[in-house]
Design brief:
GO terms for molecular function: double-stranded DNA binding. It is found in: Nucleus. One of its GO terms (cellular component) is nucleus. This is Meiotic nuclear division protein 1 homolog. This protein is mainly alpha-helical. Among the domains are: 67 residues, Arc Repressor Mutant, subunit A, CATH 1.10.10; 46 residues. 72% of the residues lie in helices and 6% in strands. It contains 7 helices and 3 strands, in the order αβααββαααα. A hairpin with a 2-residue loop joins strand 2 and strand 3.
Length: 205
């Protein structure tokens, strides 16, 4: 008989939040360690870490009263948190759009009056794909008006994919610059000026 698969970290977090929302009470950690395994299937040993991760993400409140520490979370708290996360996501999208715009401007300058080469063509194609992906992401954000957690998670993953794509092609540009420098023995500053590559071009964290 196959072993039963344990809960993922995200499943534990979701179940713990459900427990808080359903009970609408204040708990000490030792109480949660007794209730969570019975009602939500979260092993007692992981309860403390799960609750702390929710506290760190501002999804669960905590306060020390006397010598005791209490934890709580209400549905209204979740709504506020999702709104804040949505706002943060919008800022990331805006930053990504600026990065994409900067990359397009650099490539347009590099392409002007020059013969096409496969590396540059590949970069242009990939940037077009990233632009389309970004548009899809903006459409996903529109769906977030109802504060749908699934939509938020999907949009967050799309953001990470978008960042990976931008960083991958930023790496291609830097590699191409290094190859030209070594192949033709050209100063890096001259290459940057000739192809319109910013000297501070870097990866997105």
């Amino acid at each position: 008989m196959s072993k039963r698969k344990g809960l993922s970290a995200e499943e534990k977090r979701n179940r713990m939040l459900q427990l808080f929302y359903e009970k609408k009470e204040f708990f000490q950690m030792k109480e949660l360690e007794k209730i969570a395994p019975k009602e939500k299937g979260i092993v007692a040993q992981s309860v403390k870490d799960v609750v702390q991760s929710l506290v760190d993400d501002d999804m669960v409140d905590t306060e020390k009263i006397g010598t005791s520490i209490y934890f709580w979370a209400f549905p209204s708290k979740a709504k506020h948190t999702r709104k804040r996360q949505f706002s943060d996501l919008q800022e990331k999208v805006e930053l990504t759009e600026k990065q994409l715009k900067k990359q397009r401007e650099n490539l347009n300058k590099a392409q002007a009056g020059r013969e096409a080469n496969p590396e540059r063509d590949d970069i242009i194609v990939e940037l077009k794909k990233q632009k389309e992906l970004n548009q899809q992401l903006l459409l996903e954000l529109q769906k977030y008006k109802d504060n749908d957690p699934e939509t938020f998670e999907k949009a967050k993953k799309e953001i990470e994919l978008l960042k990976e794509g931008i960083n991958r092609w930023t790496d291609n540009i830097l590699s191409l610059k290094s190859w030209c420098k070594n192949k033709f023995n050209i100063e890096e500053s001259i290459l940057e000026k000739q192809f319109g590559i910013p000297s501070d071009l870097d990866y997105i964290d």
